[in-house]
């Protein structure tokens, strides 16, 4: 598990928004309501919950500083 600052990756940021899988799920209307990730994939949900609490994003840190 990682602690501290996350290393930003522009390539991963773009691919997450424009992936074929995301587009198919979005267009077919199979989206789940926000907060229901534990139903779809509980193991991934638990990992992400811990990861988000132990790391922070450089861009969100800059946004808070200059707000």
Structural commentary:
By secondary structure, this protein is mainly alpha-helical. It has one domain. It has 5 helices and 2 strands; from the N terminus they run βααααβα. The protein has a two-stranded parallel ribbon. The termini are far apart. The relative contact order is 0.19. The mean pLDDT is 85.
Please tag this protein with its features.
Phage protein; globular; mainly alpha
Describe how the helices and strands are arranged.
Elements: E1 4-6, H1 10-18, H2 20-28, H3 37-40, H4 42-54, E2 55-57, H5 58-65
Parallel strand pairs: 1-2
Please give a quick description of this structure.
This is Phage protein. The chain is mostly helical and 67 residues long.
Instruction: Give the C-alpha Rg.
Output: 15 Å
Adjacency order of strands in the biggest sheet: 1-2
Number of helices: 5
* Class by alpha and beta content: mainly alpha
Number of domains: 1
Q: What profile does the largest beta sheet have? A: 2 strands, parallel
Protein name: Phage protein
């Amino acid at each position: 598990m990682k602690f501290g600052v996350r290393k930003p990756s522009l390539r991963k940021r773009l691919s997450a928004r424009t992936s074929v899988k995301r587009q198919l799920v979005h267009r077919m209307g199979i989206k789940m309501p926000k907060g229901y990730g534990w139903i779809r994939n509980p193991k991934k949900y638990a990992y992400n919950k811990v990861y988000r609490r132990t790391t922070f994003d450089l861009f969100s840190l800059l946004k808070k500083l200059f707000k």
